[in-house]
Amino acid sequence: MVEGPGADASARVAGLLRALAVAMDEVFQAHLESFASAELLELVQGWEAHSRRAVTVDQLLLSTLMSRGVAGEYGFSSPQALLADLLRIDPREAKDRVRAAEDLGPRRGLTGEELEPVFPLVAAEQKAGVISAAHAKVIVSTLDRLRPDLDFEHGARVQGELVEQARWFNPRDLAKVAMRIVAHLDPDGAEPRDAQHQRERSFTLGKRCDGMFIPTGALTPACGALLEAVLDSLSAPAPAADGPGGVLEPDRRTPGQRRHDAIEDASRRLLADGGLPSSGGVATTLLITMTEEQFRTQQGYATTTHNDLISIPEAMRLAGEAEVVSVVLNAEGGVISHGRERRLASPGQRLALYARDRGCCFPGCEMPVQWTQVHHQKPWQYGGETSIQTMALLCGHHHRTFEERGWTLHIVDGVPWWTPPKHVDPTQKPRRNRQHHPATMAPV
Fold first, then answer.
1. How many angstroms separate the CA atoms of 276 and 51, rounded?
2. pLDDT tens across 117-127, in order?
């Protein structure tokens, strides 16, 4: 391993680093609470500009290391191997930083003369602190993908246009601008990109040791567009009448939590509608097994088809929805009971519920009927009947959360009414969702 600079560092190196350390210490020691808001914003912008310039210092240093052949001098096979060892960084990051230095750092010719960077406009704007490393990566990758003839004819103009647009757009939006520019110059290039996307497509559902799942992969533009459409429809905020007097309270979930819940809802719908191909000779089903004691005490963890663990309360909640079957085993592994066949509302029952509830029946929720699930007043897994008189429509969010928030459902004359918890309404007066039934009257 290469030793870093220590107490015996040269005076020149120590002087350069000391000047940087002093400047940073001044920021640390500043009494920022005394700054006006406008001053803080100005400082944030200024610091960002200096941070962007710092990347160009990295490129300058790496370019010098590479031109001097320092990696080979210290026995490393490549500059990125030297960098990963010296700085204790991930090899992938080291490779990216070396590539950035090759594209944006200074160069020298065969006879030692100084040459401008491969992408001079990008390098100049980054050195001035105007654009970030992410902006630069978008521009460089766009220019790298141009066909040689287009690069020769339009490369400089495209580089200049994207550098200018980078002053106004964030990197993600800049990438969209770049795609439109390239599509205009190379309208026939979509097919090769589509083929590349198909080769690179992937999806993996990794599992953490605590039971959480981590999705990773690369979706094609078509697949991503379909998923975005699903998420847009199912991840909308779901306000509820949780305030005193039925005042609407905003959905407290983060956007990420709403998208997570949308994926869960979409998966549940796909299992419920019977549209999946059969698996092992039976309809695709989520099978959950548990012991008799776990069923009785409602404690511990059940096992899914893939031998993953899921809490018993969560398993019992799932057992009444979609194509999910719970199987209770005795101590020897024998089957004591299994999910009843008739747990899902029939198409006719769903249509009747659609006509009655017209959407999520939880007070204040505006979710339309197309985005709802059928809820059993008495949980199906505990003997609840699949009957119009015992079921109601709820959106996925309120289906998951109404119990923990203290609300109770009652079916009065075939109509769903909700009793709020005392902290919402001390009188606990029943409520009905009037978003879908504005002309209804409160019960006598």
1. 51
2. 999 999 999 99
